[in-house]
């Protein structure tokens, strides 16, 4: 526990962190990778170059300072980050390294304003926060390993099937090389994939959503051709090749609620966790009313459109709506074609039941529009679940309860 003096000192730095937070975290990563280049193997280099990781860490540090006297309020966000850490293989011994470089960055960026009192207070606060992460992650590591079909760290899988789903998305079907069972997962969760790209000194780890229902003896990852790692997977990984996977992780998962309708809203490759939720619900709660919405450029870029139409034909409780920005003539003959142009809230409001569980996944702008619109319609934050691909994004302007994944 932190003493009152330390708490007050941390809170006094909140305005400074709001102004200089990103500068501090940017310098932190520079120092971290300079002093410990081996940690480059854990980070998404693309997010580093775009500044997304720096912004996400800045938001986290700021939130910790604001809630330093009531850290239990940010426990959901802590668990969200801890899922990522567990899937990446972050270890307790790495936390002191992070703390040392974070304090050094604070001192450099703030200069004389970073007094000994402030640095000492942040050292104490960081240790408390790190201990919370270490404890939560320790429990997650244990759960991942002891569950039926579970394992520790990364496990070797073989690609047994590779299906082109659209112009930009390909599905990879993976089974463990050891022939043993694979852990089940909650629809909406992801796995981390570790790859070594030829002539690259670093390994790369990326998270990809599991896009099929659990319990089938394989994992399916439906991956968009976007970025260096996914391009490597599309171009160079073929049936028979191996990939190393973490056990499933993530807190974006389906609530098995038979009473409320289920509304799934996705754009682009954001459909991947939603399809897993859809397939699972139809299997386990066959009478639950489901409304599935998906936005894409057109049918050529939409994955699994044929499968969705097949499910619609088989299940009276499922309604699907495809929104194509530039539909082809063939698209407009599609039984699920519902809108030409971009999906907007005015149109969506005429199609959805408001007393439902909502799951949303897609690009940042799409997410903000959907979540903000649902709030305006009077949908409670407890009904809205969502997932971002990448570091946490600040959604304070549209959500008051939970932070992005």
How would you characterize the overall build of this protein?
This protein is an alpha/beta fold and 405 residues long. The protein has 3 domains: 143 residues, Globin-like, CATH 1.10.490; 91 residues, Beta Barrel (Elongation Factor Tu (Ef-tu), domain 3); 126 residues, Nucleotide-binding domain of ferredoxin-NADP reductase (FNR) module (Rossmann fold). Helices cover 40% and strands 19% of the residues. It has 12 helices and 12 strands. The strands form 2 sheets. The chain has a 6-stranded antiparallel beta sheet, sandwiched between helices. Strands 10-9-8-7-11-12 form a 6-stranded parallel beta sheet, with helices on both faces. A hairpin with a 6-residue loop joins strand 3 and strand 4. Helix 2 crosses helix 6, helix 5 packs across helix 7 and helix 6 runs antiparallel to helix 7. The longest helix is centred in the first third of the chain and has 31 residues. The radius of gyration is 22 Å and the shape is globular. Its cofactor is heme b; FAD. Keywords: Detoxification, FAD, Flavoprotein, Heme, Iron, Metal-binding, NAD, NADP, Oxidoreductase, Oxygen transport, Transport. In the C-terminal section; belongs to the flavoprotein pyridine nucleotide cytochrome reductase family. Belongs to the globin family. Two-domain flavohemoproteins subfamily.
């Amino acid at each position: 526990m932190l003493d009152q003096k330390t708490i007050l000192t941390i809170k006094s730095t909140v305005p400074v962190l709001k102004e200089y937070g990103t500068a501090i975290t940017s310098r932190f990563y520079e120092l971290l990778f300079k002093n410990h280049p081996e940690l480059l193997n854990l980070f998404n280099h693309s997010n580093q170059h775009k500044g997304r990781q720096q912004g996400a860490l800045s938001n986290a540090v700021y939130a910790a300072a604001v809630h330093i006297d009531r850290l239990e309020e940010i426990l959901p966000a802590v668990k969200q980050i801890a899922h990522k850490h567990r899937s990446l293989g972050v270890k307790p011994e790495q936390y002191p390294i992070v703390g040392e470089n974070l304090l050094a960055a604070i001192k450099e960026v703030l200069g004389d304003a970073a007094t000994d009192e402030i640095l000492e207070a942040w050292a104490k606060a960081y240790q408390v926060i790190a201990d919370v992460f270490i404890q939560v992650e320790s429990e997650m590591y244990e759960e991942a390993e002891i569950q039926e079909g579970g394992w520790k760290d990364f496990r070797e899988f073989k690609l047994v099937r590779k299906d082109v789903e659209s112009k930009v998305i390909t599905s990879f079907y993976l089974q463990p090389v050891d022939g043993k069972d694979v852990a089940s997962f909650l629809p909406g969760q992801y796995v981390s994939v570790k790859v070594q790209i030829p002539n690259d000194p670093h390994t790369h780890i990326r998270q990809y959503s599991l896009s099929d229902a659990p319990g089938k003896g394989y994992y399916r990852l439906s991956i968009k051709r976007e970025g260096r790692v996914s391009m490597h997977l599309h171009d160079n990984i073929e049936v028979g090749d191996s990939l190393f996977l973490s056990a499933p992780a993530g807190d974006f998962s389906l609530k098995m609620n038979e009473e409320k309708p289920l509304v799934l809203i996705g754009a682009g490759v954001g459909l991947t966790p939603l399809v897993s939720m859809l397939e699972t619900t139809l299997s386990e709660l066959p009478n639950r009313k489901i409304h599935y919405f998906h936005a894409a450029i057109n049918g050529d870029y939409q994955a699994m459109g044929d499968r969705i139409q097949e499910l619609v034909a088989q299940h009276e409780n499922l309604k699907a709506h495809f929104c194509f920005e530039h539909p082809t003539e063939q698209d407009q003959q599609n039984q699920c074609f519902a809108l030409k142009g971009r999906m907007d809230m005015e149109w969506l409001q005429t199609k959805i039941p408001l007393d439902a569980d909502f799951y949303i996944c897609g690009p940042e702008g799409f997410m903000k529009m959907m979540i903000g619109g649902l709030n305006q319609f009077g949908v409670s934050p407890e009904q809205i679940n969502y997932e971002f691909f990448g570091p946490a994004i600040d959604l304070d302007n549209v959500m008051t309860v939970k932070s992005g994944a």
